[in-house]
Design brief:
Blueprint lengths: L10 H15 L6 E2 H7 L6 H9 L12 E2 L16 H8 L11 H4 L4
Parallel strand pairs: 1-2
Helix pairs in contact: 2-3
The protein binds a DNA duplex (13 and 13 nucleotides) through α2, α3 and β2.
Length: 112
DNA sequence: AGGGTGGCTATTG
DNA sequence: CCAATAGCCACCC
């Protein structure tokens, strides 16, 4: 009888799975925060980890990584060469109002 | 194996 | 409103 448990997903692998599952659910024109996503996947202190995972998504990913903002409703991504923010541009393109580099979470936050 | 590092956050002044 | 602070914890050398 094998003694290893290497068929069972690890906790983090399961969190990762959940992360992509939830991410895919965020509707166009809505946003969530890193901390919110962390809680949804059952890793309440993992906001930072969530951000790191999103940063690792392949460039051609169809997942809506741009709908994840920080707790202030701002983007945590660096500005591009033109001094504008790719994430916020994408959000605007789907109808999200951005004022002063921020999105009103009270209005746009997706609550499952 | 140990310590620095974040696409973070809540709290306080 | 802003800034400083102190938690956080998986990841990555």
């Amino acid at each position: 009888m094998p003694k290893s448990n290497d068929q069972q997903p690890t906790v983090m692998q399961e969190h990762e799975r959940q992360l992509y599952a939830w991410l895919a659910q965020i509707p166009r024109g809505s946003v969530v925060t890193y901390g919110q996503l962390a809680r949804l996947i059952g890793h309440p202190k993992g906001a930072r980890w969530v951000g790191r995972q999103l940063g690792r998504l392949p460039a051609d990913s169809t997942l809506p990584w741009h709908r994840v903002l920080n707790a202030r409703g701002a983007s945590s991504l660096p500005l591009d060469a033109r001094g504008s923010n790719r994430q916020l541009r994408r959000l605007q393109r789907e109808g999200v109002l951005v004022v002063d580099g921020r999105v009103a979470l009270a209005r746009y936050r997706w609550v499952p």
